[in-house]
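Researcher: Here's my situation. A collaborator sent me these components and asked whether they could plausibly form a single complex. I don't have experimental data yet, so a predicted model of the whole assembly would be a useful starting point for our discussion.
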Amino acid sequence: MRFMTSLRFIDVVAREGSIRKAADKLAITSTALNRRILQIEEEIGQPLFERLPGGVRLNTAGEIFLQHIRSQFADLARVQSQIADLSGIRRGHVQIASGADALRRFLPEAIATYRGAHPAVSFDLTRCYGEEAEARLFSLDADIALLFAPIRAAHVHVAATLRQQIQCVMPAGHRLAGKDAIRIRDLSDERVVLPTAQSGVRQLMDTAFLRRSVEPDVILESDSFEFMQNFLHFEPAIFFQIPIAIDAGRAGGGADATDFDERLVSRPVDMADVAPGTLHICHLKGRVLPVAAAKFLDDIITGLRGRYSDEVDQ
Amino acid sequence: MRFMTSLRFIDVVAREGSIRKAADKLAITSTALNRRILQIEEEIGQPLFERLPGGVRLNTAGEIFLQHIRSQFADLARVQSQIADLSGIRRGHVQIASGADALRRFLPEAIATYRGAHPAVSFDLTRCYGEEAEARLFSLDADIALLFAPIRAAHVHVAATLRQQIQCVMPAGHRLAGKDAIRIRDLSDERVVLPTAQSGVRQLMDTAFLRRSVEPDVILESDSFEFMQNFLHFEPAIFFQIPIAIDAGRAGGGADATDFDERLVSRPVDMADVAPGTLHICHLKGRVLPVAAAKFLDDIITGLRGRYSDEVDQ
DNA sequence: GCTGGTGGTGCATTTTTTGCATCATGCGCT
DNA sequence: AGCGCATGATGCAAAAAATGCACCACCAGC
C-alpha cells in the first residue's frame, strides 16, 4: 500500500526510538526518513516526536496519532480481507497472541484445519503472557488473544471463556498415578516442576500451596511445557497443565494423557483445593475484525463448544 | 494531508461518476487521476470501479473501500481535533445536517455561542430532510443531524430527543389569535400555508387533517419558513412551526412569538388533535466524534435541557 | 577535549508523477 | 449506417518529488 508508507515509517520510528535505526530497518537513508517525518509533522501542524540526544520519543500528540495509524492499518487489513472474500477466496492474515497452554495442541490443529479450508489465509502466532497479550491487542499487533489468566485491561473484549481444571502430569508408574484426583497435600515432599511465575497455571498452584500450607519440592522452573514434559522422561516428577494443552483435538476431551505422550498420565487436581481457571478468548473491544480473523475466532469457539460444551461460556 | 490525496481522489471520482469530471474538480489532468486510480486498484489487487461508456461506477469492492476511506477521513479529523485540543486551542470543523426548523433560531445562536468560546472551530451547515440527513451521517459528510422526523435508518444513534408541540403562527389580529389552543376543526376554511411534503411538521399536519376530516384552504406550499413568515405580512393566513423554530434562546421557552416577529403570534395546536412530534439529535452509531463536534453536541443538549427540561430525553 | 551517537540541511541524482497528444470504445442522435 | 461526442486508457517528454551523499550542530559519557 503505497499511500501508507509514511505512516508505516512513523510506526517503525516510534518502535525503534531512533530515526537512524528505523531507517536501517526500512532499508532507506536516515535523511529520507527524517524528511518524511518532518513533512508529516508539518502537515499535522505539531511535532509528533520529542528529539532527545539519544533518539526520538513520541509526545502526547504522537501517541494519539500513532494509535490512529495502527487502527488505520488494522482497518485496511479488514477491508482487504472483506474485498478478497467477495471473490470467493478467503484471504488475509490472522495475528494471534497466545499463552503457552493453547499453542501446544489446540492451536496447531485449529489453524491447520482452518488453513485446510482457506489456504490463502496466513497466520502469525506470538507466545506471550497476560499483560503483553493485552498490549498487543491494543497496539493492533494481535487480532485474537488466548489467555489462561484474568483479564486486566478494560479495552479487552472476551468473546468466550473456557473453564479448565488443572491437571497433574506424571510418569505412568508414579505412586499418584492411580488416584482419580490429586489433593494438594498429596504433593508435599513430591518433586514438582512448575511453570514460570507469569503463567496462569503457576499462579493458581502458588495460591493452592499457600492455602494448604504445602511446600512441595520444586526441582525445576521453566517457561517451556515441552521442555518440562521431556524432562519427566529422565527424572520422575509432577508438572501441571490444563486439559487444552494435553488433549488432542480428535479426542472427546477428558484428562487421559495417552495421546500426547504414552509414558505420561494426567490426573486432575481436586476441585476442593484448586478452583478451575479460565481460558479467555479475546479481541480488542469495539474492533471489527478482518473476515479471516473473525471466522477463525468463530471456528475455534464453535470447536471448543463441541469438545467442552459444558465449560464454554458466552 | 499529502498521504491521503489518492484516497480523496477516489472519493471525488465516486461522487462525480466520471474520472474526467472529477479531474476538473480537482484541478488536475484526467490522465494523472486515471493513473492514480489504476495504481490503487493494482495495489488492492482488484478493480474498484466498473468502466461504463458514460463514466465509472463503484463496484462492490469499491463501495467497501470507499466506506473505509471516508471513515479514515473522519477519524483523521477526530485525531487532528484531539491533538489540537492538547495545546489548549480547540480546533476543528463541525458538519451539521439540520432540518429547516432547527436552523432558524436555535442553531445560529448555539453555533455563535460555541464559536464565542472556541473561535478556531468552523462549521458547515447543510439543510436537508430525513433520509438525506441520515445518508450524510453515513457517508460521514455530517457529524451531527437535527431532525424533526422519525429516524428510519438503523445506523443512526439518537443522542437526545426533544418533544415539540406544533404551533400555529398567524397575524396578531387573526380571529384565532385569542384562543389558548387551536383545534383542527378551527382550521376548516381557514387559509393555511404548509411546509413541503418532506417536512416532519407537514406530515403531522396531514395526518391530523385526515383524521379530523378537515380540508383547509391551502393557499401556498413552500420549503422556506422565512418565505412563509414574510408572506403572512401581506396576506393573512396560518402557518405551522415547532417552538424551537420560534423561540429566541434567551427566552424561557414557551409559545409566545413576540420575539421573533412582533406582528405575528403563535398558539399551540390542541394535543387532542396532534400529538407532539420529536426533534432527534443524532450522530452515526458507533462513531467517535471529533472533539469539537462532541463538545458542541454536548453543549446543545445541555442548552436544550436548560430551556425545555421536561421535553428533553436521553 | 575527544568519541560516538543523535537529528537536521544543502545539493546533485534518481524516481515518481504529471500533462499533452492520441487511441479505442460505446452511446445517442440524425 | 454514419456521425458527433462523450468516456477511459496509453506512449512519451517535462515537471515535481523523493532520495542519497556529505556535512553540520548537538549532547552524553569517558
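Model: Some features of this prediction you could bring to your collaborator: The radius of gyration of chain A is 23 Å. Residues 28-29, 31-32, 35-36, 52-54 of chain A lie near DNA strand D (CB under 10 Å from a C1').
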